[in-house]
Amino acid sequence: MILLVVRFFTNKRYKGITIYPFVIVTQEEDGRNAVLLNHERIHIKQQLEMLVLPFFVWYGLEFLVRYFLCRSWKNAYRNISFEKESYANEEDLDYLKKRSFWNWIKYI
Questions:
Q1: Mind listing the pLDDT tens digit for each residue in 12-66?
Q2: Distance, first Cα to last Cα, the chain
Q3: Is residue 6 packed enough to be buried (19+ CB in 10 Å), middle (13-18) or exposed (0-12)?
Q4: What is the mean pLDDT of the segment spanning 90-102?
Q5: What 3-state DSSP class applies to 27?
Q6: Do 3 and 23 touch, CB atoms closer than 8 A?
Q7: How far apart (Å, rounded) are the C-alpha atoms in residues 77 and 6?
Q8: Of 9, 12, 11, 6, whose CA–CA distance to 27 is shortest?
Q9: Which pLDDT value is given to residue 13?
Q10: E strands along the chain, which residues?
Q11: Is the dihedral of CA 30, 4, 48, 108 positive or negative?
Q12: Domain extents for the chain?
């Protein structure tokens, strides 16, 4: 994981974004936030499992389907399977040690 602090890169609604191998945050203090970094590490694992590019295709398609169904940007985002797994487990700092392969499938 390569951590970058880029103030103008992400939308203000989000503290970080992961594009393998980079985790990009907008504030230096977010780079020391263990829960946020764990959330982003979960995304790194998901991206690696799907060989990166297919992850983003799936992510985008799932977002579009969920947005079409609920007409809410926030709800569509929070209900993407990758996000559901990351949010559900971000506070468990040992989660990645015990996580099974393609575990995000359980959150579809």
A1: 778 899 999 999 998 999 999 999 999 999 999 999 999 999 999 999 999 999 9
A2: 26
A3: exposed
A4: 98
A5: coil
A6: yes
A7: 22
A8: 6
A9: 77
A10: 2-5, 16-19, 22-25
A11: positive
A12: 2-107
